[in-house]
User: Fold this.
Amino acid sequence: MGINGFVWSQTIACSGSVQGRILSNDPGEPLPGATVYVRELATGAVADSAGYFRLEKLCAGRYTFVYQYVGYKPFSVPVTIPGDSALVLKPVQLVPDSQTLQEVVVAEHRSEAQQLLQVQNSLSGEALDQTRGQSLGESLKAITGLYSIQTGPSISKPVIHGLYSNRIIILNNGIRQEDQQWGTEHAPQVDQFLASRLTVIKGAASIRYGSDAIGGVILVEPKSMPTQPGIGGEVNVVGASNGGLGVASGMIEGAFANKLAGLSWRLQGTLKRSGYVRTPNYYLQNTSYHETNFSGDLHYDHKRWGAELFYSQFDTKIGLFTGAQVSSLADLYAAIERPEPLVQPGFSYKLGRPYQDVQHDLLKIRAYWHTGRGGELTATYAWQQNQRREYDFISFSGALNPELYLKLISQTVDLVWEHAPIRSKAGGQWSGSVGFNGLTQGNIRQYLFLIPNFRNYGAGLFAIERYAVNRWTLEAGLRYDYRWLRAYFLDEVTKQTYFKTHSWQNANGSLGVAYQLSPDLTLTTTVSTAWRAPNVADLYSNGLHQSAVAYERGNPNLQPEQALNGNLVLAYAGKRLSGEIGVYNNLINNYIYLKPDSVPVIRQRGAFPAYTYTQVRATFRGIDATLTYKLTDHLALTTKNALLFAFNQTDHAYLVFIPPNRSDNSLRYDWAKWGKLSNLYLSMSGLYVARQNRAPAVTTRQENGQIIFTGDFAAPPPAYFLLGAELGCTVQVGSQPMHMSLSGTNLANTVYRDYLNRFRYFADEPGRSFMLRIKLPFSVGKGV
Amino acid sequence: MKRINALAVSVFATLLLTVACNNGEQNVTPTDDNEAITTATLTLTNKANQSEVVTATIENLNTTADFSKATLNLKANTTYTGVITLLDKTKTPTLDATAEIKEKANEHLFVYTPTPSTLLTVTLTDKDTNPAPGPYPIGLTTEIKTGAAGTGKLKVVLRHQPNAKNGQATPGTSDLDTDFTVVVQ
Assistant:
């Protein structure tokens, strides 16, 4: 205890560390149990019995350290961490605060996810800055074991260990994001700039975050609110040569003093615009997109309680590559045959049909109360509205309506009680929480039928308890869920509305053990079960999915998916070598997937392959390995490798859309200082993605003049290798450090296609691109 | 602090009331396809005898497709003038899609493919107004010559080729792709 409370939260890519000591100023006694909290990372550590603390796996950057202890005045100080080195800070002396002998709240500052004994990786600081300007799905690919399913260059959906869509929960600022995530071409409606930390829990994490999280959880965590009076902020500007991408994101925040002490606020907004993306040989017509996002946050913290009001809006219009628009199987095969798209225009920012227009609004109200010895009680209510309009090619009728309109309103209520840590006689510590999650959703559709109107209710109760003693940490969790769904339909003949109702319930559990073999070597293992009730798309889809060239049929008899997930991770944080190796096995009974039917559906536009939702027993097994070796104090080699083996055990066949093996290797050189530049670094990287050989066989045959196909439309594309480079530094502008980086992707302008891109049948992936990123923090009249 | 508290509670309550009472999902709107084609009719008139008219119709193309009246009974070695009519009966009043296609003739092309190819010879007789190297045929009206007696199929494909029409079938996507049965006696 006390060395580092956060050994399980492994921030990859960075290996800076900080050691320090927290003392009382009079007479310089150590303050065991005092806390240091890194505001930008929402992480921290607790001082040991001699007042020492240690923070590991920090990325280079400028941070604010907040030191706190009961009965002492909080003290915050900026700390610059230079590259991947170990920094030893001067001891900090806290001044007693005789006036307000209030309990300082540490729990508020610990992200709850970081306490969970789950396999998790996160991106923050410089590692996150390097992904600014990209979508959430793309930026998460920096984490080993994460992939993305793309629909052209503008739509990217995160994939964890081969699972995606409804099997992943995205927590946007603590709220379960509900944005029609069942759709393969529905990217998460989250502003990546909102996050100061992206944490991914790999593997089933249903106990705390609710049913459905069979694949994992993605936490988008904003920077914590300012506590020191004054106004500050940050401006981010990103530009990319390919697609003419321009992004501007700004944030301004402040905290009040005196009578309004405890009140803090933040406003944030992002503008993004991109034009046609260029492959090495041609432009992709209509791959433009825009994004306009803003959010506002108001916090009030007073003694033992606090409240938060948060509102955000995400608004995007995404053009779909016109060369991928096919209206029948015959068109599709003709398009696959073509080596290049028929229409190859020049560059443009034009955005016409087909496109998606999606708006997501989120309102969150949260209140917490520290009961003192009892612990902390948090209540959260959130309201979300997701409006999705999908426009196909302009029809001959000249209608300006979208082909598909869906409006989903979700409301969630979460009540969590985290009990205060209890010391055991053996010197260990008990900690844990119990809670309730409630959800209701209403969906309204218009125009074409893809999924029906529905109402659903969900309720869950959970309890998680942890016991940490010496080198051991044990965790056990239990959860019970109830789900109710009613789908509404219209009888086309009688024009009467009728409905169908389903309800499911399930109990799940998890067990986890972590053992510290040595101060720098930790072994963690977890076993958990998780379930997912079939969603409305699985049950009642019935329509032509034009962009997928598929006729999808739901199956009202589906049973819930039940998963058994095991993980084993060995993490090492040595002086020269650091990293982690994890193996996982996820067995899913009743795994729901779209199985191709043998007979195609004939409609006005011709023959379409038909798919029906079917259940099989599936396994997802794999290895994630991330290692960094410091060749010298300045030069480090990092290798990230992910292997995945997925199999349909019922039919003894491979599953479609499973990420191929990949290996990402980089070499990085750091200069602490070079003239007026600090934190200067240069890195070169090479990404190798293997061909997916474990894919269903592609066969087609003619039967009665119809094309009957199985498996997939085309064989997986060949393996590819991409070169990248990045140069970054910090320049002092006035009193503020300005971070700049210039990166190049696909430097060799390699022509390649990616198996997980749904448009791989039609066009190549983007060619070479250079990206410039600038981040400038600012402060206005910062108080003392 | 009290004020904020009260504000939070009132916002919470208002939202809960307004949203919880909204049962919009129980009002189901009928399915509406902007671009449905329910009915395709081929009308062939014997050039030598104008009173001899043969029609074949495919109904419910957007759903289950009814081919029961989709057979063209033609005479061998005869020349017919053909007209195709496409309707969208899901709209009220029924939408005449052929009129819309005529209006946007510069981006539409009908492709007629008989099997076996000796069964019929189809010539498109109308032209769009595309600039040079156009104009190109449209295919709303045709001349169909029958060969020797036999049976087979006539595939009718409507290609939608916005900004890409070049007289070939390749560009664009299919708005219609269906088969009429042909009996030549």
User: Anything to note?
Assistant: Chain A touches chain B through 57 residues (CB under 8 Å). The longest strand of chain A covers residues 497-518. Chain A has a mean pLDDT of 88.
